[in-house]
């Protein structure tokens, strides 16, 4: 007898679940000559292979290595769809993550030839191509963010920043919902590099088939060109940072029409671009 | 009539002097709805050519673009000696820096084939090779740093962090002398990425033929593997950061025997490695 038919579940790659411990204790001596234990952030080399071809080595905290590998391939436009990914397998014995695809990466050499060392936390990204992609980004115009929702998000983010508080050598990124005066954190990823953290969020969104159009992206890191490009690529209209921004981050945010808020902590913030989507006094979602 | 002969000055490449303004004002709206001017850090694409061959694009504040290009080539082990460099010419009209060498770069393709996206502020560096180089680093064992000298350095660094204070989106690096209870800042460079700042310092040291063995390296950024490798490559025995460190940064510091101090600000610090070179109570240089 056959079981009643269920709608086919969307394809999900086969994944390991190989997170590393986030912090390690080392001995230190403080200014009073006292010896103590200090937690420091993990940092691991993770070499990315796609269908047996070595792409590059990522240095990572290792908190979400499978999502990081997926998000890197997504954000670098090396793989078009999560449906093309069969498996993502991390093996820390050999510091490797192996991504198996259905069709391989077409023109890998061409796609990775022109690298850019991007600001601060760059990664040898295919910058020129990303800038061209940005021309095609259309962010939703009919969504709004209220000050009350922003404050709720900032309050909730505070509770998440565990590794930062302990070890102080990581950046955190979050994807959050945008409700009527409330915001829920859907994903929170910390990494030694903020570009790893944003890539891991992109990987999680891919896996769970979560769209960005009704979401808020939060980062502890600075809003450089590459951060703004990545948020726009993910289709997210709201970008919030605890830190400052750069001129090129600002220029790109204006160009793509993203609503960008910097220096956001407690009940302080600076709204830089996209004011038309922001309600200062209101609480509507 | 001939002028009396002077000893030959050491070779110095022909350089432009094309620093960009560090900050730009943009309009922002704060939480009270007040519109104001906020300084933000510059960020510029700068494509590096060596003898007409395009290497990569750096994203930089543009404060010391010639030194940045030189230091990048030095720290990536692409050029062996400053004597091989004939000219470094920055042209912001085309966002390019052109380095002319005497002999070119041997096996450029091989040297740049294996890239690593390093933690946080990586840059697609030739990581594997750098780790091998580290095996050959010998730091001086007969120099010492005193707490009094460290405090003097931290005090002087505070006065330098101009762009960070204004725009908050840059990292600063300094090279300082190690005197008897005093420290003088020889170079201070800020950039949107801390790896750019450390590369620019390496370029300045090359140009001025300054050795690292009797110096202190200070950074506002985190001490990841790559930061520790670069300090060691420059032969600097003392590495001081206002921020935290990562596990791999710690492991490499122990391996090369660098004296590493983190969380250093005001009169607080944590000494992590190389305690044998540090005088906690003393003031001797």
Report strand % of chain A: 25-35%
How large is the count of helical segments of chain A? 8
Quick check: average pLDDT of chain A?
87
CATH architecture descriptor text of the largest domain in chain A: 3-Layer(aba) Sandwich
Q: Briefly, what CATH class of the largest domain in chain A?
A: Alpha Beta
The SS-based structural class of chain A is: alpha/beta
Describe the oligomeric state of these chains in a short phrase: homodimer
Give the strand order of the largest sheet of chain A, numbering strands 1, 2, ... along the chain. 11-10-12-13-14-15
Distance between the termini of chain A: 49 Å
Pattern of helices and strands of chain A: EEEEEHEEHEHEHHEEHEHEHEEE
Number of strands of chain A: 16
Report helical residue fraction of chain A: 25-40%
Within CATH, the superfamily of the largest domain in chain A carries the name: Cytidine Deaminase, domain 2
- List the uncertain runs of chain A: 117-126
The fold-level CATH name of the largest domain in chain A is: Cytidine Deaminase, domain 2
Using CB atoms under 8 Å apart, which protein chain pair has the greatest interface? A-B, 66 and 66 residues
What spatial form of chain A do the alpha-carbon principal axes imply?
A: globular
How many structural domains are formed by the residues of chain A?
2
Radius of gyration of chain A: 20 Å
């Amino acid at each position: 007898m056959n079981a009643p038919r269920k709608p086919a579940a969307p394809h999900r790659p086969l994944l390991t679940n190989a997170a590393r411990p986030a912090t390690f204790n080392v001995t230190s001596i403080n200014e009073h000559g006292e010896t103590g234990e200090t937690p420091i952030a993990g940092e691991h080399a993770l070499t990315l292979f796609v269908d047996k071809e070595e792409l590059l080595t990522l240095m990572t905290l290792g908190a979400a290595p499978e999502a990081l590998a997926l998000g890197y391939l997504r954000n670098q436009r090396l793989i078009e769809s999560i449906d093309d990914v069969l498996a993502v397998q991390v093996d820390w014995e050999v510091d490797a993550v192996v991504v198996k695809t259905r069709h391989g990466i077409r023109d890998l050499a061409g796609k990775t030839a022109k690298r850019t060392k991007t600001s601060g936390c760059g990664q040898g990204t295919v910058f020129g191509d990303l800038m061209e992609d940005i021309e095609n980004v259309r962010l939703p115009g009919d969504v709004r963010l209220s000050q009350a929702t922003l404050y709720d998000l900032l309050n909730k983010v505070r509770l998440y920043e565990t590794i930062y508080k302990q070890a102080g050598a990581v950046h955190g990124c979050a994807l959050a919902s945008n409700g009527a005066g409330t915001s829920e954190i859907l994903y929170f990823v910390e990494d030694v590099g903020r570009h790893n953290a944003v890539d891991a969020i992109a990987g999680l969104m891919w896996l769970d088939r979560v769209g960005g159009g009704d979401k808020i992206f939060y980062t502890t890191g600075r809003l450089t060109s590459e951060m703004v490009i990545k948020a726009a690529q993910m289709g997210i209209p709201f970008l919030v940072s605890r830190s400052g921004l750069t001129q090129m981050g600002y220029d790109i945010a204006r160009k793509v029409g993203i609503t960008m808020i910097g220096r956001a902590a407690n009940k302080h913030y600076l709204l830089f671009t996209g004011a038309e989507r922001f309600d200062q006094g209101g609480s509507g979602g």
